[in-house]
What does this fold into?
Amino acid sequence: MADHPWHPRIIPFVVYLSFLALILPARDWHPLTYPLLYSLQCGLVLYLLWRYRRLLPELTLSFHWLAVPVGVGVCVAWVVIGKWMVSLAPNDLGDPGYDFFEKMNPTLAWTSVSLRLLGMSIVVPMFEELFIRSLCLRSFHRFRRTGVGVLHLLMDLPLLGEWLIHTNWGKRAGRHPPVFGPVFEKTPLGALSLFGVAASTFVFMMSHANRDKPAAIVCGVAYCLLLWATRKKGLGPVIWAHGITNALLWVYTLAYADWRFL
It folds into this structure.
């Protein structure tokens, strides 16, 4: 993990997403599998964050008062924009959400919903901010160097890489040393560039359903600005803001039974 700064910051994110491919079909097979697999999913991610903690100095839980208005504001924007998107494209809602909780017996349903609150307000903000607002925002700080880094990654792929290394772009990129690791290490946490904010927000947006993509853009920019304003405290304030947003979305979902926002 210590060989490259990407490794400890991307592995928890990949592990969490990989579990989704198992949890979603399993929950349709039997409702009891959801709390079991979701607990395993979050528990494993937390273990990885703890295991790599010495390699992740920016992963703090420091609080700043700006996290509260940003977290609340993003929640409001997420709901308003999400409802607006549904009105524009009612047939393209993406994942209908977690309305399957209504089909469980009350004890299992409340256990699952409570676990979901803990996961989305504590676990998700930590590994997602580590990946998006630390790894991506810093590694993609400059446009040209990011382009070279992407070419390096593509040239490592089978077939495509074999063709790319013989092109002019590939030959020029091949003359450059590795990009993403050195750029990450030279770019301090919270340093913003227009391209870095756009690229990291794009990655954040693409990890959400179609209905949530416009809101994810607003969210990504807001969290980047919060990180810049509170950068001396590490990722803590952004993690708090993200957790507040998700916790309020959980409250809204249960209050209005609008499961799409869970």
Summary: The two ends are 33 Å apart (CA to CA). Residues 154 and 169 are 11 Å apart (CA to CA).
